[in-house]
Here is the input.
Amino acid sequence: MPKEKSCKSYDKIQYSKKVINLFLHPKNVGEIKNASGVGEVGNPICGDVMRIYIKVSDDKIVDIKFKTFGCASAIATSSMMTEMVKGKTLAEAKKLTFNDITKKLGGLPDSKLHCSALTIAGLKKAIENYEEKN
Ligand code: FES
Here is the structure.
């Protein structure tokens, strides 16, 4: 019979200082009233959910906020993503990849790369939502 994974397996996750810092002090948390676009995504396996709000003006993301109900890296990657796209054009924001965020965070454990991918999916959904309305 296979050994059951205990919670202790999570003790071995190594986060960079940047990830820990953004988890403890995330930037751009909250929501934007009358947002230009909103994207909500969730991962059915881990159960984490992210909601991304964007304010667009002259084709630029002039403001962005997030609410993430999830793990430390979900919060850190959401925070980093908002910092990386704020002030960028929609075209530039669409080019951002989960690898870009992961690199900027000083790396993520393999088991946490999907958190970064979920953040990108949330951003893309928010942009799509904006484009559908305009
Ligand atoms: Fe799923 Fe972090 S564990 S988003």
Observations:
- Helices lie at 17-24, 72-85, 90-95, 98-104, 113-133.
